[in-house]
Amino acid sequence: MRFLIFNYGAGNLFSIRAALKKEGVSSDITRTGAGVRQADAIVLPGVGSFDQASRALPMPRLREQIESGKPVLGICLGLQLFFASSEEGRGKGLSVLDGRVRRFPSSVKVPQIGWNTLNVIRSSRLAEGVPTGSWVYYVNSYYPEAKGRCVAATTSYGVDFPAMVEDRNLFGTQFHPEKSGTAGRTILRNFVRVVKR
What is the CATH number of the domain that holds 165? Predict the structure, then answer.
Protein backbone atom coordinates (compact mmCIF):
# COMPACT_ATOMS: atom_id res chain seq x y z
CA MET A 1 0.00 0.00 0.00
CA ARG A 2 1.36 3.41 -0.99
CA PHE A 3 0.14 6.93 -0.22
CA LEU A 4 0.93 10.08 -2.21
CA ILE A 5 1.58 13.26 -0.20
CA PHE A 6 1.26 16.52 -2.12
CA ASN A 7 3.92 19.16 -1.63
CA TYR A 8 2.67 22.67 -2.37
CA GLY A 9 5.68 24.55 -1.07
CA ALA A 10 4.83 24.44 2.62
CA GLY A 11 3.51 21.94 5.09
CA ASN A 12 4.30 19.19 7.52
CA LEU A 13 5.48 16.77 4.86
CA PHE A 14 8.03 14.81 6.82
CA SER A 15 6.15 14.61 10.11
CA ILE A 16 3.04 13.20 8.39
CA ARG A 17 5.23 10.84 6.36
CA ALA A 18 6.89 9.60 9.57
CA ALA A 19 3.51 9.18 11.28
CA LEU A 20 2.20 7.11 8.35
CA LYS A 21 5.35 4.99 8.37
CA LYS A 22 4.58 4.05 11.99
CA GLU A 23 1.26 2.69 10.70
CA GLY A 24 3.07 0.58 8.11
CA VAL A 25 2.38 2.86 5.14
CA SER A 26 4.96 3.81 2.52
CA SER A 27 4.54 7.23 0.93
CA ASP A 28 5.90 9.37 -1.87
CA ILE A 29 5.96 13.16 -2.04
CA THR A 30 4.94 14.93 -5.25
CA ARG A 31 4.48 18.44 -6.58
CA THR A 32 3.02 17.52 -9.96
CA GLY A 33 0.78 14.60 -9.08
CA ALA A 34 2.98 12.09 -10.91
CA GLY A 35 1.94 8.61 -9.83
CA VAL A 36 -1.38 9.73 -8.41
CA ARG A 37 -3.39 7.15 -10.35
CA GLN A 38 -1.27 4.33 -8.95
CA ALA A 39 -1.43 5.57 -5.33
CA ASP A 40 -3.86 3.91 -2.93
CA ALA A 41 -4.65 7.21 -1.18
CA ILE A 42 -3.85 10.93 -1.31
CA VAL A 43 -2.78 13.18 1.57
CA LEU A 44 -3.07 16.98 1.42
CA PRO A 45 -0.95 18.18 4.36
CA GLY A 46 -1.38 21.23 6.55
CA VAL A 47 0.42 24.57 6.99
CA GLY A 48 0.78 27.28 4.34
CA SER A 49 -1.58 29.71 2.62
CA PHE A 50 -4.75 28.87 0.71
CA ASP A 51 -3.68 30.94 -2.32
CA GLN A 52 -0.22 29.40 -2.52
CA ALA A 53 -1.57 25.87 -2.25
CA SER A 54 -4.39 26.40 -4.74
CA ARG A 55 -1.91 27.73 -7.32
CA ALA A 56 0.60 24.93 -6.75
CA LEU A 57 -1.74 21.94 -6.78
CA PRO A 58 -2.75 20.17 -10.03
CA MET A 59 -6.46 20.77 -9.32
CA PRO A 60 -7.97 18.96 -12.36
CA ARG A 61 -5.88 15.86 -11.67
CA LEU A 62 -6.89 15.90 -8.00
CA ARG A 63 -10.59 16.33 -8.77
CA GLU A 64 -10.40 13.43 -11.22
CA GLN A 65 -9.01 11.17 -8.48
CA ILE A 66 -11.59 12.34 -5.95
CA GLU A 67 -14.38 11.64 -8.42
CA SER A 68 -12.93 8.17 -9.01
CA GLY A 69 -13.48 7.37 -5.33
CA LYS A 70 -9.86 7.37 -4.19
CA PRO A 71 -9.54 8.09 -0.42
CA VAL A 72 -8.19 11.56 0.34
CA LEU A 73 -7.08 12.88 3.74
CA GLY A 74 -6.90 16.66 4.11
CA ILE A 75 -5.04 18.01 7.16
CA CYS A 76 -5.55 21.61 8.35
CA LEU A 77 -5.01 23.63 5.14
CA GLY A 78 -5.51 20.38 3.23
CA LEU A 79 -9.05 20.15 4.64
CA GLN A 80 -9.73 23.79 3.78
CA LEU A 81 -8.79 23.09 0.16
CA PHE A 82 -11.83 20.79 -0.13
CA PHE A 83 -13.95 23.96 -0.22
CA ALA A 84 -14.36 26.48 -3.04
CA SER A 85 -12.87 29.56 -1.39
CA SER A 86 -11.30 31.06 1.71
CA GLU A 87 -11.32 34.47 3.36
CA GLU A 88 -7.53 34.10 3.38
CA GLY A 89 -7.28 35.05 -0.30
CA ARG A 90 -8.69 34.79 -3.80
CA GLY A 91 -7.49 31.30 -4.69
CA LYS A 92 -9.93 28.62 -5.82
CA GLY A 93 -10.19 25.39 -3.89
CA LEU A 94 -11.32 21.97 -5.04
CA SER A 95 -15.05 22.70 -4.49
CA VAL A 96 -15.74 19.10 -3.45
CA LEU A 97 -17.46 20.02 -0.16
CA ASP A 98 -20.20 22.61 0.27
CA GLY A 99 -19.25 25.59 2.42
CA ARG A 100 -16.46 28.13 2.81
CA VAL A 101 -13.39 28.91 4.92
CA ARG A 102 -13.63 31.72 7.47
CA ARG A 103 -11.14 33.61 9.66
CA PHE A 104 -11.54 33.30 13.42
CA PRO A 105 -13.32 36.27 15.04
CA SER A 106 -11.27 39.09 16.54
CA SER A 107 -12.48 38.04 20.01
CA VAL A 108 -9.85 35.27 20.14
CA LYS A 109 -6.09 35.21 19.64
CA VAL A 110 -5.15 34.28 16.09
CA PRO A 111 -3.68 31.88 15.20
CA GLN A 112 -5.01 29.22 17.51
CA ILE A 113 -1.87 27.33 18.55
CA GLY A 114 -2.00 24.40 20.93
CA TRP A 115 -4.28 21.74 22.31
CA ASN A 116 -8.06 21.80 22.21
CA THR A 117 -10.80 19.21 22.70
CA LEU A 118 -12.97 17.36 20.20
CA ASN A 119 -16.74 17.07 20.39
CA VAL A 120 -17.63 13.97 18.36
CA ILE A 121 -21.15 14.57 17.00
CA ARG A 122 -21.75 11.50 14.85
CA SER A 123 -20.27 8.12 14.12
CA SER A 124 -17.66 8.06 11.38
CA ARG A 125 -14.93 5.75 10.17
CA LEU A 126 -12.30 8.42 10.91
CA ALA A 127 -13.44 9.06 14.48
CA GLU A 128 -13.88 5.40 15.47
CA GLY A 129 -12.39 4.85 18.91
CA VAL A 130 -11.87 8.59 19.52
CA PRO A 131 -14.03 9.70 22.44
CA THR A 132 -15.54 13.15 22.88
CA GLY A 133 -13.18 15.27 24.95
CA SER A 134 -10.03 13.92 23.28
CA TRP A 135 -7.24 16.48 23.03
CA VAL A 136 -5.81 17.33 19.60
CA TYR A 137 -3.24 19.86 18.40
CA TYR A 138 -4.10 22.92 16.30
CA VAL A 139 -2.22 25.62 14.40
CA ASN A 140 -4.82 27.60 12.47
CA SER A 141 -6.13 31.09 11.79
CA TYR A 142 -9.00 29.90 9.56
CA TYR A 143 -11.63 27.22 9.88
CA PRO A 144 -14.11 25.51 7.56
CA GLU A 145 -17.76 26.51 7.70
CA ALA A 146 -19.25 23.34 6.26
CA LYS A 147 -22.80 22.64 5.15
CA GLY A 148 -24.53 19.28 5.15
CA ARG A 149 -23.84 16.14 7.13
CA CYS A 150 -20.12 15.88 6.49
CA VAL A 151 -19.12 17.17 9.95
CA ALA A 152 -18.10 14.34 12.29
CA ALA A 153 -16.62 16.38 15.15
CA THR A 154 -16.39 20.01 16.23
CA THR A 155 -14.13 22.19 18.37
CA SER A 156 -14.85 25.51 20.04
CA TYR A 157 -12.50 28.48 19.71
CA GLY A 158 -14.42 31.73 19.55
CA VAL A 159 -16.95 29.81 17.45
CA ASP A 160 -17.91 26.15 17.13
CA PHE A 161 -16.30 24.89 13.95
CA PRO A 162 -15.83 21.56 12.12
CA ALA A 163 -12.79 19.72 13.43
CA MET A 164 -13.29 16.50 11.46
CA VAL A 165 -15.22 15.88 8.27
CA GLU A 166 -16.09 12.71 6.39
CA ASP A 167 -18.00 12.51 3.14
CA ARG A 168 -17.75 9.42 0.94
CA ASN A 169 -14.02 9.14 0.13
CA LEU A 170 -13.15 12.56 1.61
CA PHE A 171 -11.69 12.72 5.13
CA GLY A 172 -10.38 15.81 6.86
CA THR A 173 -9.05 17.12 10.16
CA GLN A 174 -8.62 20.81 10.97
CA PHE A 175 -6.06 19.77 13.61
CA HIS A 176 -2.77 17.94 13.04
CA PRO A 177 -3.21 14.22 13.79
CA GLU A 178 0.53 13.62 13.44
CA LYS A 179 1.06 15.94 16.44
CA SER A 180 -2.01 14.87 18.45
CA GLY A 181 -0.75 11.96 20.52
CA THR A 182 -3.00 8.95 21.07
CA ALA A 183 -6.09 10.46 19.43
CA GLY A 184 -4.10 11.47 16.35
CA ARG A 185 -2.54 8.03 15.99
CA THR A 186 -5.99 6.45 16.22
CA ILE A 187 -7.32 8.75 13.50
CA LEU A 188 -4.43 8.01 11.14
CA ARG A 189 -4.81 4.30 11.84
CA ASN A 190 -8.52 4.58 11.02
CA PHE A 191 -7.74 6.24 7.70
CA VAL A 192 -5.22 3.53 6.83
CA ARG A 193 -7.87 0.91 7.69
CA VAL A 194 -10.36 2.59 5.35
CA VAL A 195 -7.82 2.55 2.52
CA LYS A 196 -7.01 -1.15 3.11
CA ARG A 197 -10.67 -2.06 2.73
Answer: 3.40.50.880
